[in-house]
Amino acid sequence: MLTPRRIEIFKAIVDEYIQTAEPVGSKALQQKYHLPYSSATIRNDMMALEEMGYLEKVHTSSGRIPSTAGYKFYCENLLENAALDNKMQVAIRQAFDTTNMNIEEAVHLSCQVLSDMTNMTAGAIGPDAKNQHLAHIKLFPIDERNAVCVFITDSGHSETKTFHFDEDVLVQDIESCTEILNSHLKGVAISDLPQKMEELKPQFTMLVKRHETLFAAFVKAFVKFANENVYFSGKDRMLYQPEFEDIDKLKKLMGMLEDTENWRTMDSNERAVAVRSDKRSELTWVDDVAIVRTKFHINDVESGQLMVVGPSRMNYDKVISMLEYAVSIIENIYSNNGGRDE
Q: Which end of the chain lies in a sparser environment, N or C, as judged by fewer CB atoms within 10 Å?
């Protein structure tokens, strides 16, 4: 049975483990948190909490650590919803004031800022382009084998892709290619672009010398534009988390981060344990990994998610506050195509 005393002891254990990453013992808990109970009473309650599934015993220590079920209970019932520190608010705001950015750049910057501030991996599922239509393409040659392409949709969303060609491509071929695409693909749904490209192949063959190289590059880019909108910053920060000193756990995590489909289908993952916070964020645990996600909306069609990925031993109050503050800035600047997304 969860009594008020056991809840108090449990919260102290979670708070201590989040700070130290060390299994928590009854005597240290009593002394540091000034609990008005004997070590024996605390120890008995810790055993009871373990039997209820909220704590786990570490074989190499007499102390205990929270289980996934324990973190879920903690986040559902014991989060303090602390206000974000003013210094952190200023740091996040200033990151957005440094330069004019489109929504994609702002989302990527948010990930970098969140990763720096949490010392964990931050990621995003960007606005989904599948329901949008192509408005314009701009292709900028860098040299004979490299070019930058900007895709702009009817909602104002833009995305940048870098092309690396296997052979030299003339500037006039790039210009001819861009003219063909803009004259025939304007208004086409992003998801239909690869199929429409096949219909344009004869024109490429007639008008563009390096038609095969350019054609293949655009087909690949259109497929990515429609399907690949997952981004991560700070993957290497997981190397410094004690939970991932185990090489097998680290490999599993890195494989998880590389699997873009995994993040788009997180809600249907059978191994995931999820709970929604009192605010906008959703918390999910998959094995030893915790994911805090917050959705943002740009307009009636476009939405995305910012997230922080790390060990279950995470300062959830702080992470949720940071995520939701960053999301509020993104929505304030970019929603309904106001602000800088041009």
A: N
